[in-house]
Amino acid sequence: MLLSRPEWSRQELLMLLGQEQPGVPVATLVSRLHTLKIKGVLHSVGRGCYTSLAPRPTFAPVLDSGTTRLLRQAQLALPTGAALCFSDTAWLNEFHNGPMLPSYRLLETSKVHLPALYEALLTHSRLVFLNPDSAAVLTYVHRHERAVVLRPLISEAPLTRTGSASTSPIEKLLVDTLAHRDLYLDYQVSLPGIFAQARQCYALNESRLRRYANRRDLWAEVQHLLQPET
To answer: Quick count: other Cβ atoms within 10 Å of Cβ 64?
Structure first.
């Protein structure tokens, strides 16, 4: 029953279980579905979506020493409890078939904290850019590999922990390739393959992905990129 496809919706599974046991109450079928999850026969891969495949690992990027120092300075510049999210375009090289591409770093926090963060990070590097528009990114940021771009953090953006820092989970990273096309310019032609590879290699929470993509008004584009190539 579970081997012909990689993923099933909850409703599809209940229909299949019902075909195997005609006349069984829906509550009993739901209970059996729950039992299959407990036994490890089924794994949840998002809201109302299941797979019989072994669960994929969670995306967990490694922060180098330079990034760790940068984040330590950034955290000291912000009030206690202020949200701060770090992303690195280099993380996409794992999903990109081709040579290593130039990389840039993105730090996001509340708009009100950006000026103080900018001043603090200038002591770390002169290659820090405060909320540049797309033209400035293409004109200046792309001249300096490992430059740091500071931009406002969208409310309700998903965050994850990497050591003591907040970083972008894979769902945010994928959506940000579209939300910050200027910063991820070199990856744009490869996005279908990048989305497919990321989904194949790591656990992808589609509910989280959908929520954040909707916040950025990008869900239609994300859906298109998630469609398997024919």
So the answer is: 11
Q: What is the pLDDT along the chain (230 residues), one digit of tens a residue?
A: 444 456 767 788 788 788 877 888 888 878 887 787 776 667 666 666 766 656 678 999 999 999 999 999 999 999 999 999 999 999 999 998 888 899 999 999 999 999 999 999 998 788 999 999 999 999 999 999 999 999 999 999 999 998 889 999 999 999 999 999 999 999 999 999 999 999 888 888 888 999 999 999 999 999 999 876 54
Where does the chain have alpha helices with state H? 10-20, 26-38, 65-77, 114-121, 134-139, 170-179, 191-201, 206-215, 219-226
Q: Which residues contact 33 (CB under 8 A, 6 or more apart)?
A: 10, 13, 14, 17, 42
What string of H, E and C letters represents the secondary structure of 202-220? CCCCHHHHHHHHHHCCCHH
* Six token digits for residue 9: 């919706």
90: three-class secondary structure by DSSP: helix
Tokens of 30: 């739901």
Q: To 10 degrees, the CA torsion angle through 143, 148, 153, 157? A: 90
Amino acid 57 reads P
Torsion of CA 172, 173, 175, 176, to 10 degrees: 110
